[in-house]
Every structure is written in C-alpha cells, then in structure tokens.
Design goal:
Layout: E1 3-4, H1 8-46, H2 58-83, H3 94-97, E2 99-106, E3 109-116, E4 124-127, E5 136-137, H4 140-145, E6 156-157
Antiparallel strand pairs: 1-6, 2-3, 3-4, 4-5
Helix pairs in contact: 1-2
C-alpha cells in the first residue's frame, strides 16, 4: 500500500495535534499507574486471596483491574487513530519518550522526519534504520525538498 511522504510543513502542522494526543496518552498512563499502585496495595494485603469472591476487597480489586484494561484500550485506540491512522509511527521507545516518526523521501529513498515531544517544529531526520541516535539536523534544502516529488494522485509515494 502506498505510504504518505510528509513534507516538513505538513509534519509541523500536525505538532499541536500530536502534543494534545500525547497529553491524553500521558493522562491515561498516570491513571493506569494510580490504579496499578492501588491494586498492588490490595495484593500486598491479601496475596492470592484477593481473587476470592468472598474477599471484602474483591470488588475493589476487580474495579482497578477493569479500569486498567479500559485505559489501556483507550491508549491503543488513540495511538491507532491519531498516530498510526495518520501514517505516522512510534519508533522503539517512542510512546514512553514522546518520539514520532513521519515517513518521507529524501534523494529517492525512504527516511523519517523525527520529532520529539516538546520540540516546537521538526528539526531532524534519520535513516529508516538510524533511529533517534542517528538523528541529523535538517538543512534548509531538506526543509524545502523532503516529501516533494512524483507521487500518485492521492499524494502518496510508493516508498522504496
């Protein structure tokens, strides 16, 4: 399937939206942490008995477990819809560190524009196998030319 090749301007346009998405993800992750900590306390108190229906804290434990599963599902849905659904990707460790890659093309090859949460604009790129440690600062020419060139009618590239 063709993949969108983002220009730097298109990627920069999405940054405020992505900041909001990552805020939502982070808020849910904090709630997961809180529910997990409460569940751990109950586990310390009751051990294996926490799973017994006659345990007085059974309902509370079940509620915390259900909350964790619901929040994890919400995070997955946000990521699928708002990140992956836009043709973007989280590199390894991306969710935890706020890293998002935008596929693009430079000099006829597939590369990624690389954004880290908190950066006001896209300032770097890396090779597909380069990762965050392989980030290179964008040049003025790259800002003008990345993601531009022959594409199909939908604006997508058939990436190499």
């Amino acid at each position: 399937m063709p993949e969108k090749a983002f220009t730097v301007a298109e990627a920069n346009f999405l940054i405020p939206t992505l900041e909001g998405v990552l805020d939502s993800v982070q808020e849910r992750m904090k709630r997961i942490q809180g529910a997990t900590e409460r569940l751990q306390v109950l586990d310390l108190l009751w051990g294996a008995k926490i799973g017994s229906r006659d345990n007085p804290d059974y309902g509370e434990a079940q509620s915390h477990s259900a909350e964790i599963l619901q929040l994890m599902g919400e995070i997955e849905e946000l990521v699928e819809r708002e990140i992956e659904g836009r043709g973007l990707r989280f590199p390894q460790g991306g969710l935890e560190h706020g890293l998002i890659d935008f596929p693009t093309v430079w000099e006829g090859r597939r590369v990624y524009l690389c954004w880290k949460r908190g950066e006001p604009i896209i300032e770097a790129w890396h090779e597909v196998d380069g990762g965050f440690s392989g980030r290179r600062t964008l040049t003025a020419e790259q800002v003008r030319e990345m993601g531009r060139g022959p594409a199909d009618a939908s604006g997508s590239w058939h990436m190499p």
